[in-house]
Amino acid sequence: xxxxxxxxxxxxxxxxxxxxxxxxxxxxxxxxxxxxxxxxxxxxxxxxxxxxxxxxxxxxxxxxxxxxxxxxxxxxxxxxxxxxxxxxxxxxxxxxxxxxxxxxxxxxxxxxxxxxxxxxxxxxxxxxxxxxxxxxxxxxxxxxxxxxxxxxxxxxxxxxxxxxxxxxxxxxxxxxxxxxxxxxxxxxxxxxxxxxxxxxxxxxxxxxxxxxxxxxxxxxxxxxxxxxx
Length: 229
Description:
Hypothetical Protein Pfu-838710-001, 6 helices, CYTH-like_dom_sf, CYTH domain-containing protein, CYTH_domain
C-alpha cells in the first residue's frame, strides 16, 4: 500500500528559536519528548530515469518494495532521488509530488524509504551513490544535518540543524489515502499556529534550495549559514 506524506517546513534559524519551539511543544503536549537524535548526510540526485533506477535496484528489494517502486515510477511527474546516511544506516529515498509543489520540498508527496541490507553489498552511502550514478543520475547537492525527532499532538516534528539553513522545523503526517491529505494539512497548520511558528513560503524555500545547490561545497559538513529572502 502506498503512503502519502504531508510535510510543512518552518525556518527557525537560531538555536534560541529552536529552544523556544521545544519549550512550546512540551507546554502544549506534556507527553512530547525527544524520540531520537541522529546525524545525517543526505545526497540529492537529478537527471536520470526512475524506471531505469527501479531496474537497477529491483534485485535488492523484497517483492512489496519492488511493487511500490514501480508504482511510484509510473505515477511520477516530478520526483526526488536521495541517499541518506542516518548514523550509519544507509537508506535510499524516493519522493514523488502529488500536488503543485516540487518533489524536493513539496507539501504533499508519496515516498519510498528503503534501508539497504548490507547483504546486498551496499554498506556505505558512497556505494549507494555509485549505483545511482551508474544508472544515469548526477549529484545535485550534498546536505548534512543534526536531526531531533519528536511527536507532538499526533504530528511528527523534526528539528534539524542544517548546513546552510540553520535550524529548521518540519511538521509531518503520513496518511494511507489521498483523500485524507487535506485533513492532515489542516491538523499540521493548527499545531503550528499553537506553537507560534509560521510556514516557510514555498517560493522562498525554492530560492534557498537553489542557492544551496549552487554553493553546497561551501556549506556541506559545516555550521555555516546563509540568508536568502
